[in-house]
Amino acid sequence: MSVFTKIIEGEIPCYKVAEDQHHIAFLDINPNAKGHTLVVPKKEVNKVFDLEKEAYHNLMDFSYRVAKALEKSVACKRVGLSVIGLEVPHVHVHLVPLNNMKDIQFTDKVALTKDEFIALAARISSEFK
Ligand code: AMP
C-alpha cells in the first residue's frame, strides 16, 4: 500500500486542499515552494501513463481546478505542473507555485510550520470550486 493510499484511507494525516469521489489534493510535506500541492487519484496506480485515458483526463481536470485555486491564494508568477513519481509509486501531479526556475527543480525546499501548512491548506481550499 502506498503512502498516498494510507492518506486516502485516513491512516496517516495530510493537509487536505480538495477532494472528490476519485481524487484528493493535499500539500506536499517537503515543498519546493509555498503552496506546492499534490493531486492524487484515489485508485492506486503506479505510473501516470498507466492510467486509463478517462482517468488521466479526469486527473488533469481536477488538477486544473486545484491550480485555479492556487493562483487565487498563493502569490506567484504562475503555477507549474510536473509528474515524476520516482519516490512514491502512486500517480500524483505536482502543482507548484513558481516565482523562478529553481521552484520546479526539486532541489531547494522551503520549511513551513504546522500552523503555516494548516493556514495555507485552508486558504487554497476556500478558493477551490
Ligand atoms: P515523486 O514520487 O518523486 O514525485 O515525489 C513524491 C513527493 O511526495 C515528494 O515531493 C514528497 O515530498 C511528497 N510526499 C511524500 N510523502 C508525503 C506525505 N506523507 N505527505 C505529503 N507529501 C508527501
Q: What would your notes on this structure say?
A:
- The protein has three helices and five strands.
- With 129 residues, the chain is of the alpha+beta class.
- The protein has a single domain, classed as HIT-like (HIT family, subunit A, 2-Layer Sandwich).
- Strands 1-2-3-5-4 form a five-stranded antiparallel sheet.
- The protein is globular.
- The model has no long low-confidence stretch (mean pLDDT 98).
- It binds adenosine monophosphate.
- The site of adenosine monophosphate has 11 residues, from loops.
Contiguous low-pLDDT stretches (5 residues minimum) are none
Share of helix, binned: 25-40%
Bound ligands, each once: adenosine monophosphate
Beta-strand percentage range: 15-25%
- Helix run count: 3
Q: How many strands, which pairing sense, and closed or not: the largest β-sheet?
A: 5 strands, antiparallel
Rg computed from alpha carbons, rounded to a whole number of angstroms:
14 Å
Instruction: Measure the end-to-end span.
Output: 30 Å
Q: What is the mean predicted local confidence, pLDDT?
A: 98
Major β-sheet strand ordering: 1-2-3-5-4
Structural class: alpha+beta
CATH homologous superfamily heading = HIT-like
